[in-house]
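Database export, one record per block. Field names are fixed; values are copied verbatim from the stored entry.
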Amino acid sequence: MQKNQLMQSLWLLLLIIALLIVSAILPSFSVGSLSFKRINMLADIQTEPVAPLLSDTIPEIDTVASKLPAEVVPEVVIEHVNPCPPGITCLEDFSPHKKVLRTFFQALRSANQKPIRIAFFGDSFIEGDILSASFRDTLQGIYGGRGVGYVPITSEAPQFRTTIQHEFSNWETYSLVGKQDPNVPLGISGYAFVPLPENKVEYKPSKKQNPRKFDHVRLFYRTKKNSDLIYTVNDTIILHSSLVSSDSLQQLVITENNLKSVKFQFDNPDSLVVYGASFESTHGVFVDNFAMRGNSGISLYGIEPAFLQQFNERQQYQLILLQYGLNIVTETDSMDYSWYKTKMIKVINRLKEVFPETSMVLIGISDRAGNIDGKIQTIPAIITMRNTQREIARKTQIAFWDLYEAMGGKNSIIDYVSATPPLAAKDYTHLTFKGGKKIATKLASAILFEQTRYDKKAPVQ
Protein backbone atom coordinates (compact mmCIF):
# COMPACT_ATOMS: atom_id res chain seq x y z
CA MET A 1 0.00 0.00 0.00
CA GLN A 2 1.28 3.48 -0.90
CA LYS A 3 2.46 5.51 2.09
CA ASN A 4 0.20 8.42 3.11
CA GLN A 5 1.98 11.70 2.22
CA LEU A 6 -0.50 13.99 4.01
CA MET A 7 1.67 14.61 7.08
CA GLN A 8 4.75 15.41 4.96
CA SER A 9 2.72 17.86 2.85
CA LEU A 10 1.45 19.58 6.00
CA TRP A 11 4.97 20.03 7.36
CA LEU A 12 6.15 21.39 3.99
CA LEU A 13 3.28 23.91 3.95
CA LEU A 14 4.10 25.05 7.51
CA LEU A 15 7.78 25.45 6.55
CA ILE A 16 6.89 27.65 3.55
CA ILE A 17 4.60 29.82 5.71
CA ALA A 18 7.34 30.20 8.31
CA LEU A 19 9.87 31.27 5.66
CA LEU A 20 7.46 33.87 4.26
CA ILE A 21 6.82 35.28 7.75
CA VAL A 22 10.57 35.52 8.40
CA SER A 23 11.12 37.25 5.01
CA ALA A 24 8.46 39.82 5.90
CA ILE A 25 10.08 40.59 9.26
CA LEU A 26 13.74 40.72 8.23
CA PRO A 27 14.97 44.06 6.81
CA SER A 28 16.58 44.24 3.37
CA PHE A 29 20.25 43.20 3.36
CA SER A 30 23.09 42.37 0.99
CA VAL A 31 25.61 39.53 0.89
CA GLY A 32 28.44 40.31 -1.50
CA SER A 33 26.89 41.17 -4.87
CA LEU A 34 23.50 39.69 -3.94
CA SER A 35 20.67 41.86 -2.59
CA PHE A 36 17.74 40.51 -0.57
CA LYS A 37 14.60 42.60 -0.24
CA ARG A 38 12.01 42.46 2.46
CA ILE A 39 8.78 40.86 1.21
CA ASN A 40 5.32 42.04 2.15
CA MET A 41 2.83 39.29 1.24
CA LEU A 42 -0.08 41.73 1.51
CA ALA A 43 1.48 44.56 -0.51
CA ASP A 44 -0.87 44.12 -3.49
CA ILE A 45 -4.05 44.30 -1.40
CA GLN A 46 -3.12 46.82 1.29
CA THR A 47 -4.77 50.22 1.12
CA GLU A 48 -2.08 52.85 0.72
CA PRO A 49 -2.54 56.26 2.34
CA VAL A 50 -3.14 59.16 -0.02
CA ALA A 51 0.04 61.15 -0.49
CA PRO A 52 -0.22 64.67 0.99
CA LEU A 53 0.15 67.65 -1.29
CA LEU A 54 3.76 68.68 -1.83
CA SER A 55 3.00 72.12 -0.45
CA ASP A 56 1.98 70.53 2.86
CA THR A 57 5.22 68.65 3.39
CA ILE A 58 8.95 69.18 3.50
CA PRO A 59 10.13 69.43 -0.14
CA GLU A 60 10.94 65.91 -1.35
CA ILE A 61 14.23 66.93 -2.93
CA ASP A 62 15.56 67.70 0.55
CA THR A 63 14.70 64.16 1.70
CA VAL A 64 16.47 62.58 -1.24
CA ALA A 65 19.44 64.91 -1.12
CA SER A 66 20.15 63.91 2.48
CA LYS A 67 20.79 60.35 1.26
CA LEU A 68 23.04 61.26 -1.66
CA PRO A 69 26.48 62.75 -2.09
CA ALA A 70 26.12 66.43 -2.96
CA GLU A 71 27.87 66.05 -6.29
CA VAL A 72 25.19 63.73 -7.75
CA VAL A 73 22.14 65.82 -6.81
CA PRO A 74 21.16 67.84 -9.88
CA GLU A 75 20.72 71.56 -9.53
CA VAL A 76 17.02 72.41 -9.34
CA VAL A 77 15.76 75.66 -10.80
CA ILE A 78 12.01 76.36 -10.87
CA GLU A 79 10.90 79.43 -12.75
CA HIS A 80 7.32 80.63 -13.06
CA VAL A 81 6.75 84.12 -14.42
CA ASN A 82 3.27 84.23 -12.85
CA PRO A 83 1.59 81.93 -10.33
CA CYS A 84 -0.29 79.01 -11.84
CA PRO A 85 -4.06 78.87 -11.38
CA PRO A 86 -5.38 76.00 -9.24
CA GLY A 87 -5.38 72.64 -11.00
CA ILE A 88 -2.70 73.52 -13.57
CA THR A 89 0.94 72.47 -13.44
CA CYS A 90 2.56 75.22 -15.46
CA LEU A 91 5.32 74.86 -17.99
CA GLU A 92 8.73 76.07 -16.88
CA ASP A 93 10.28 78.14 -19.66
CA PHE A 94 14.07 78.19 -19.53
CA SER A 95 14.60 80.11 -22.76
CA PRO A 96 16.36 83.50 -22.47
CA HIS A 97 13.24 85.57 -23.20
CA LYS A 98 10.64 83.09 -21.88
CA LYS A 99 9.21 82.55 -25.36
CA VAL A 100 10.22 78.97 -26.08
CA LEU A 101 6.73 78.16 -27.43
CA ARG A 102 6.47 81.26 -29.61
CA THR A 103 6.75 79.32 -32.89
CA PHE A 104 3.96 76.97 -31.91
CA PHE A 105 1.61 79.67 -30.61
CA GLN A 106 2.11 81.81 -33.71
CA ALA A 107 1.43 78.81 -35.94
CA LEU A 108 -1.84 78.04 -34.15
CA ARG A 109 -3.24 81.33 -35.44
CA SER A 110 -3.34 79.83 -38.95
CA ALA A 111 -4.54 76.34 -38.01
CA ASN A 112 -7.77 76.93 -39.96
CA GLN A 113 -5.71 77.34 -43.13
CA LYS A 114 -2.84 74.84 -42.93
CA PRO A 115 -1.62 71.81 -40.94
CA ILE A 116 0.07 72.43 -37.57
CA ARG A 117 2.19 69.44 -36.59
CA ILE A 118 3.39 68.19 -33.21
CA ALA A 119 5.98 65.41 -32.83
CA PHE A 120 5.41 63.47 -29.60
CA PHE A 121 8.49 61.34 -28.84
CA GLY A 122 8.39 58.85 -25.98
CA ASP A 123 8.71 55.31 -24.68
CA SER A 124 6.08 52.68 -23.81
CA PHE A 125 4.33 55.23 -21.56
CA ILE A 126 2.71 56.69 -24.70
CA GLU A 127 2.64 53.47 -26.75
CA GLY A 128 -0.61 52.76 -28.54
CA ASP A 129 -1.53 56.47 -28.58
CA ILE A 130 -2.54 56.02 -24.94
CA LEU A 131 -1.82 59.62 -23.95
CA SER A 132 -1.32 61.39 -27.25
CA ALA A 133 -4.78 60.39 -28.53
CA SER A 134 -6.65 62.46 -25.96
CA PHE A 135 -4.08 65.26 -26.28
CA ARG A 136 -4.70 65.25 -30.04
CA ASP A 137 -8.48 65.19 -29.57
CA THR A 138 -8.35 68.21 -27.27
CA LEU A 139 -6.34 70.35 -29.68
CA GLN A 140 -8.29 69.21 -32.73
CA GLY A 141 -11.50 70.08 -30.92
CA ILE A 142 -10.24 73.66 -30.55
CA TYR A 143 -8.22 74.21 -33.72
CA GLY A 144 -9.65 71.65 -36.13
CA GLY A 145 -7.99 68.78 -37.91
CA ARG A 146 -8.97 65.19 -38.64
CA GLY A 147 -6.80 62.07 -38.58
CA VAL A 148 -4.23 60.46 -36.31
CA GLY A 149 -1.13 61.77 -38.07
CA TYR A 150 1.94 59.58 -38.61
CA VAL A 151 1.62 55.79 -38.19
CA PRO A 152 4.54 53.37 -38.73
CA ILE A 153 4.38 50.41 -41.11
CA THR A 154 4.47 47.80 -38.34
CA SER A 155 3.85 48.01 -34.61
CA GLU A 156 4.58 45.92 -31.52
CA ALA A 157 1.00 46.34 -30.31
CA PRO A 158 -1.28 47.14 -33.27
CA GLN A 159 -4.41 45.78 -31.58
CA PHE A 160 -3.76 47.89 -28.49
CA ARG A 161 -4.07 51.15 -30.40
CA THR A 162 -7.71 52.16 -30.79
CA THR A 163 -7.27 55.34 -32.85
CA ILE A 164 -6.67 53.46 -36.11
CA GLN A 165 -7.05 49.89 -37.39
CA HIS A 166 -3.70 48.56 -38.54
CA GLU A 167 -2.74 45.22 -40.10
CA PHE A 168 0.51 44.19 -41.78
CA SER A 169 2.55 41.17 -42.84
CA ASN A 170 5.97 40.30 -44.27
CA TRP A 171 8.14 43.25 -43.26
CA GLU A 172 11.68 43.47 -41.88
CA THR A 173 11.83 45.98 -39.04
CA TYR A 174 14.86 48.12 -38.12
CA SER A 175 14.98 50.46 -35.13
CA LEU A 176 17.09 52.48 -32.72
CA VAL A 177 16.74 49.80 -30.04
CA GLY A 178 16.77 46.75 -32.33
CA LYS A 179 18.20 45.55 -35.62
CA GLN A 180 20.15 48.13 -37.63
CA ASP A 181 21.81 48.27 -41.06
CA PRO A 182 23.93 51.13 -42.47
CA ASN A 183 22.07 50.73 -45.77
CA VAL A 184 18.71 51.25 -44.07
CA PRO A 185 18.56 54.79 -42.66
CA LEU A 186 16.15 55.13 -39.76
CA GLY A 187 13.27 57.57 -40.06
CA ILE A 188 12.06 60.26 -37.68
CA SER A 189 10.18 57.69 -35.60
CA GLY A 190 13.41 55.75 -35.06
CA TYR A 191 12.10 52.94 -37.27
CA ALA A 192 12.57 51.79 -40.87
CA PHE A 193 10.80 48.95 -42.68
CA VAL A 194 11.93 46.84 -45.63
CA PRO A 195 9.21 44.97 -47.57
CA LEU A 196 9.59 41.21 -48.02
CA PRO A 197 7.85 39.08 -50.66
CA GLU A 198 4.01 39.18 -50.46
CA ASN A 199 4.17 42.18 -48.15
CA LYS A 200 1.16 44.28 -47.26
CA VAL A 201 0.07 46.96 -44.80
CA GLU A 202 -3.50 48.13 -44.37
CA TYR A 203 -5.03 51.03 -42.42
CA LYS A 204 -8.65 51.79 -41.61
CA PRO A 205 -10.27 54.52 -39.51
CA SER A 206 -11.11 53.68 -35.92
CA LYS A 207 -14.35 51.80 -35.21
CA LYS A 208 -15.01 54.01 -32.20
CA GLN A 209 -18.23 55.95 -31.88
CA ASN A 210 -16.54 59.09 -33.19
CA PRO A 211 -14.24 57.62 -35.85
CA ARG A 212 -11.07 59.53 -36.68
CA LYS A 213 -11.75 59.80 -40.41
CA PHE A 214 -9.15 60.99 -42.86
CA ASP A 215 -9.19 62.11 -46.46
CA HIS A 216 -5.50 62.81 -47.00
CA VAL A 217 -2.79 60.12 -46.81
CA ARG A 218 0.94 60.62 -47.33
CA LEU A 219 3.24 57.60 -47.60
CA PHE A 220 6.95 58.17 -46.80
CA TYR A 221 9.64 56.07 -48.47
CA ARG A 222 13.09 56.02 -50.06
CA THR A 223 14.24 53.87 -52.97
CA LYS A 224 17.38 54.07 -55.09
CA LYS A 225 15.97 51.80 -57.80
CA ASN A 226 12.67 51.47 -59.58
CA SER A 227 9.91 50.02 -57.43
CA ASP A 228 6.19 49.62 -57.97
CA LEU A 229 3.35 50.20 -55.55
CA ILE A 230 -0.12 48.68 -55.67
CA TYR A 231 -2.58 50.35 -53.36
CA THR A 232 -6.21 49.56 -52.77
CA VAL A 233 -8.67 52.24 -51.67
CA ASN A 234 -11.89 51.34 -49.83
CA ASP A 235 -11.31 47.62 -50.59
CA THR A 236 -12.39 48.09 -54.20
CA ILE A 237 -10.29 50.61 -56.13
CA ILE A 238 -6.92 49.15 -57.15
CA LEU A 239 -4.30 51.62 -58.31
CA HIS A 240 -0.68 51.31 -59.48
CA SER A 241 2.14 53.78 -59.04
CA SER A 242 5.85 53.85 -59.86
CA LEU A 243 7.81 55.13 -56.89
CA VAL A 244 10.33 57.92 -57.42
CA SER A 245 13.91 56.68 -57.20
CA SER A 246 16.13 59.02 -55.20
CA ASP A 247 18.73 59.18 -52.43
CA SER A 248 16.40 61.40 -50.40
CA LEU A 249 13.05 60.97 -48.69
CA GLN A 250 10.00 60.86 -50.96
CA GLN A 251 6.26 60.86 -50.39
CA LEU A 252 3.21 59.56 -52.21
CA VAL A 253 0.00 61.54 -51.63
CA ILE A 254 -3.47 60.01 -51.78
CA THR A 255 -6.54 62.24 -51.56
CA GLU A 256 -9.97 60.65 -51.22
CA ASN A 257 -13.03 61.95 -49.38
CA ASN A 258 -14.08 59.78 -46.44
CA LEU A 259 -11.48 57.02 -46.82
CA LYS A 260 -12.69 53.73 -45.39
CA SER A 261 -9.44 51.84 -45.95
CA VAL A 262 -6.13 51.95 -47.78
CA LYS A 263 -3.84 48.96 -48.39
CA PHE A 264 -0.27 49.13 -49.72
CA GLN A 265 1.65 46.34 -51.45
CA PHE A 266 5.13 46.77 -52.96
CA ASP A 267 6.49 44.91 -56.00
CA ASN A 268 10.19 44.73 -56.93
CA PRO A 269 11.19 46.33 -53.61
CA ASP A 270 14.94 46.23 -54.26
CA SER A 271 16.56 49.01 -52.14
CA LEU A 272 13.11 50.23 -51.02
CA VAL A 273 12.75 51.42 -47.43
CA VAL A 274 9.31 52.49 -46.18
CA TYR A 275 8.80 54.56 -43.03
CA GLY A 276 5.12 55.15 -42.41
CA ALA A 277 2.02 56.99 -43.52
CA SER A 278 0.36 60.15 -42.23
CA PHE A 279 -3.44 60.29 -41.97
CA GLU A 280 -4.80 63.80 -41.91
CA SER A 281 -6.93 66.56 -43.42
CA THR A 282 -5.77 69.72 -45.19
CA HIS A 283 -5.65 71.91 -42.06
CA GLY A 284 -5.79 71.76 -38.27
CA VAL A 285 -3.59 70.22 -35.60
CA PHE A 286 -1.91 66.82 -35.97
CA VAL A 287 -0.01 64.92 -33.28
CA ASP A 288 2.44 62.25 -34.47
CA ASN A 289 3.02 59.53 -31.89
CA PHE A 290 6.67 58.38 -32.00
CA ALA A 291 6.59 55.83 -29.19
CA MET A 292 9.37 53.27 -28.88
CA ARG A 293 9.32 50.61 -26.20
CA GLY A 294 12.57 50.52 -24.20
CA ASN A 295 13.88 53.86 -25.49
CA SER A 296 15.58 56.11 -22.93
CA GLY A 297 15.73 59.06 -25.33
CA ILE A 298 19.51 58.82 -25.71
CA SER A 299 19.22 56.69 -28.84
CA LEU A 300 17.57 59.55 -30.76
CA TYR A 301 21.13 60.72 -31.37
CA GLY A 302 21.46 57.73 -33.72
CA ILE A 303 19.11 59.17 -36.36
CA GLU A 304 21.04 60.87 -39.16
CA PRO A 305 20.56 64.67 -38.85
CA ALA A 306 20.34 65.07 -42.64
CA PHE A 307 17.53 62.53 -42.81
CA LEU A 308 15.71 64.20 -39.91
CA GLN A 309 15.90 67.46 -41.85
CA GLN A 310 14.35 65.78 -44.86
CA PHE A 311 11.43 64.64 -42.72
CA ASN A 312 11.02 68.12 -41.32
CA GLU A 313 10.96 69.56 -44.83
CA ARG A 314 7.89 67.40 -45.42
CA GLN A 315 6.33 67.86 -42.00
CA GLN A 316 7.44 71.28 -40.73
CA TYR A 317 6.90 70.55 -37.05
CA GLN A 318 5.97 73.49 -34.86
CA LEU A 319 6.25 71.66 -31.53
CA ILE A 320 8.29 68.72 -30.24
CA LEU A 321 7.37 66.95 -26.99
CA LEU A 322 9.90 64.58 -25.37
CA GLN A 323 8.75 62.05 -22.75
CA TYR A 324 11.47 59.76 -21.38
CA GLY A 325 13.17 58.52 -18.21
CA LEU A 326 11.21 55.43 -17.15
CA ASN A 327 13.66 53.08 -18.87
CA ILE A 328 16.55 54.44 -16.80
CA VAL A 329 15.12 54.38 -13.26
CA THR A 330 15.08 51.12 -11.26
CA GLU A 331 14.31 50.20 -7.67
CA THR A 332 18.01 49.66 -6.87
CA ASP A 333 19.34 52.64 -8.83
CA SER A 334 22.41 54.53 -7.66
CA MET A 335 20.55 57.78 -8.47
CA ASP A 336 23.56 59.37 -10.13
CA TYR A 337 22.21 60.56 -13.49
CA SER A 338 25.02 62.88 -14.47
CA TRP A 339 25.86 60.56 -17.39
CA TYR A 340 22.24 60.65 -18.56
CA LYS A 341 22.12 64.43 -18.30
CA THR A 342 25.25 64.76 -20.46
CA LYS A 343 23.88 62.47 -23.17
CA MET A 344 20.36 63.96 -23.23
CA ILE A 345 21.77 67.48 -23.49
CA LYS A 346 23.59 66.32 -26.63
CA VAL A 347 20.35 64.82 -27.99
CA ILE A 348 18.30 67.97 -27.41
CA ASN A 349 20.99 70.27 -28.78
CA ARG A 350 21.10 68.06 -31.90
CA LEU A 351 17.30 68.35 -32.24
CA LYS A 352 17.52 72.12 -31.85
CA GLU A 353 20.03 72.23 -34.72
CA VAL A 354 17.83 70.10 -36.97
CA PHE A 355 14.59 71.85 -35.96
CA PRO A 356 15.80 75.44 -35.32
CA GLU A 357 12.35 77.02 -35.59
CA THR A 358 10.50 74.37 -33.58
CA SER A 359 9.25 74.87 -30.02
CA MET A 360 10.35 72.15 -27.63
CA VAL A 361 9.11 70.78 -24.28
CA LEU A 362 10.78 68.11 -22.13
CA ILE A 363 8.16 66.20 -20.14
CA GLY A 364 9.46 65.02 -16.78
CA ILE A 365 9.25 61.43 -15.62
CA SER A 366 5.94 60.14 -14.27
CA ASP A 367 5.51 58.62 -10.84
CA ARG A 368 6.42 54.94 -10.65
CA ALA A 369 6.21 52.59 -7.68
CA GLY A 370 8.05 49.46 -6.69
CA ASN A 371 8.53 47.12 -3.74
CA ILE A 372 10.65 49.23 -1.40
CA ASP A 373 11.40 47.39 1.86
CA GLY A 374 8.27 45.29 1.50
CA LYS A 375 5.94 48.16 0.70
CA ILE A 376 4.65 49.42 -2.66
CA GLN A 377 5.70 53.07 -2.88
CA THR A 378 7.34 55.61 -5.15
CA ILE A 379 10.83 54.56 -6.26
CA PRO A 380 13.15 57.13 -4.60
CA ALA A 381 15.17 57.66 -7.79
CA ILE A 382 12.06 59.03 -9.57
CA ILE A 383 12.49 62.39 -7.85
CA THR A 384 16.18 62.54 -8.71
CA MET A 385 15.44 61.77 -12.36
CA ARG A 386 12.74 64.45 -12.41
CA ASN A 387 15.19 67.02 -11.11
CA THR A 388 17.84 65.86 -13.59
CA GLN A 389 15.39 66.35 -16.44
CA ARG A 390 14.54 69.84 -15.21
CA GLU A 391 18.25 70.62 -15.24
CA ILE A 392 18.54 69.22 -18.79
CA ALA A 393 15.78 71.60 -19.88
CA ARG A 394 17.50 74.52 -18.15
CA LYS A 395 20.86 73.73 -19.77
CA THR A 396 19.33 73.43 -23.24
CA GLN A 397 17.01 76.43 -22.71
CA ILE A 398 13.77 74.68 -23.59
CA ALA A 399 10.54 74.24 -21.63
CA PHE A 400 9.95 71.65 -18.91
CA TRP A 401 6.67 70.14 -17.72
CA ASP A 402 6.67 68.36 -14.37
CA LEU A 403 4.53 65.27 -14.97
CA TYR A 404 5.37 63.86 -11.54
CA GLU A 405 3.88 66.95 -9.89
CA ALA A 406 0.92 66.98 -12.28
CA MET A 407 0.05 63.41 -11.26
CA GLY A 408 0.04 64.38 -7.58
CA GLY A 409 3.60 63.69 -6.48
CA LYS A 410 4.72 60.86 -4.23
CA ASN A 411 2.68 57.64 -4.46
CA SER A 412 0.25 59.19 -6.93
CA ILE A 413 0.67 56.18 -9.23
CA ILE A 414 -0.76 54.04 -6.40
CA ASP A 415 -3.86 56.22 -6.36
CA TYR A 416 -4.06 55.83 -10.16
CA VAL A 417 -3.94 52.03 -9.86
CA SER A 418 -6.57 51.89 -7.09
CA ALA A 419 -8.97 54.33 -8.78
CA THR A 420 -12.33 53.10 -10.07
CA PRO A 421 -12.03 52.58 -12.98
CA PRO A 422 -8.22 52.16 -12.82
CA LEU A 423 -6.11 54.99 -14.26
CA ALA A 424 -2.92 52.91 -14.32
CA ALA A 425 -1.91 49.26 -14.68
CA LYS A 426 -0.82 47.07 -11.77
CA ASP A 427 2.79 47.31 -12.88
CA TYR A 428 2.62 50.76 -11.19
CA THR A 429 4.22 52.28 -14.29
CA HIS A 430 1.91 52.43 -17.30
CA LEU A 431 -1.38 54.26 -17.73
CA THR A 432 -4.74 52.93 -18.80
CA PHE A 433 -6.56 54.85 -21.54
CA LYS A 434 -8.56 56.69 -18.88
CA GLY A 435 -5.35 57.58 -17.09
CA GLY A 436 -3.88 58.76 -20.38
CA LYS A 437 -6.89 60.98 -20.91
CA LYS A 438 -6.45 62.52 -17.46
CA ILE A 439 -2.76 63.29 -18.06
CA ALA A 440 -3.46 64.54 -21.60
CA THR A 441 -5.99 67.00 -20.21
CA LYS A 442 -3.42 68.30 -17.75
CA LEU A 443 -0.76 68.66 -20.46
CA ALA A 444 -3.14 70.43 -22.84
CA SER A 445 -4.29 72.75 -20.04
CA ALA A 446 -0.69 73.68 -19.25
CA ILE A 447 0.07 74.49 -22.89
CA LEU A 448 -3.17 76.39 -23.49
CA PHE A 449 -2.67 78.42 -20.31
CA GLU A 450 0.84 79.28 -21.47
CA GLN A 451 -0.68 80.39 -24.76
CA THR A 452 -2.98 82.87 -22.98
CA ARG A 453 0.03 84.33 -21.19
CA TYR A 454 1.94 84.58 -24.45
CA ASP A 455 -0.98 86.19 -26.30
CA LYS A 456 -1.24 88.89 -23.64
CA LYS A 457 2.37 89.89 -24.31
CA ALA A 458 2.70 89.34 -28.06
CA PRO A 459 0.94 91.53 -30.62
CA VAL A 460 -1.13 89.75 -33.26
CA GLN A 461 0.88 89.52 -36.49
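Remark 1: Residues 29-36, 40-81 have pLDDT under 50 and may be disordered.
Remark 2: The first helix runs from residue 6 to 25.
End of record.
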